[in-house]
């Protein structure tokens, strides 16, 4: 009798878990101009467009993620890059390792879920908060 009740409870939990919809991950792409944010989004959507500077914030859906590209604003560093919500994942696109060293000192890494992304550099990264795509956007698909 006890085993049957446990099996019934396990089946119910499995059915409930199966039908509950997972909340999509919210990811924000931030960084300076010319760092590859828009190119990566176009690649994920299979668009083959020439990119232009992003002037307004926009959001796209990709798999179970909500991806948001945010342009730079005026103001202090966190305001400039819209780093304001500790519940979001941030991918900060940078041009070189020098930017990485400088920005790492400016951002409270414990407060925000932030990783740095370099698109063009052809180097291996041993740092867990730095993703080097080496021009291959497929590497980012594996992260998502």
TrEMBL record:
TM segment ranges: 6-21
Q: Which UniProt keywords apply?
A: Membrane, Transmembrane, Transmembrane helix
Know the name of this protein? Uncharacterized protein
């Amino acid at each position: 009798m006890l085993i049957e009740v446990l099996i019934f409870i396990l089946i119910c939990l499995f059915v409930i878990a199966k039908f509950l919809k997972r909340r999509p991950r919210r990811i924000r792409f931030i960084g300076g101009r010319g760092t590859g944010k828009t190119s990566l989004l176009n690649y994920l959507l299979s668009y083959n467009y020439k990119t232009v500077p992003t002037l307004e914030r926009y959001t796209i859906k990709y798999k179970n993620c909500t991806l948001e590209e945010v342009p730079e604003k005026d103001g202090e560093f966190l305001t400039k890059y819209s780093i304001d919500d500790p519940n979001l994942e941030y991918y900060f696109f940078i041009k070189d390792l020098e930017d990485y060293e400088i920005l790492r000192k400016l951002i409270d890494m414990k407060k925000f879920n932030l990783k740095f992304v370099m698109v063009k550099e052809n180097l291996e990264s041993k740092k867990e908060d730095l993703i080097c795509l080496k021009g291959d956007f497929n590497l980012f698909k594996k992260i998502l």
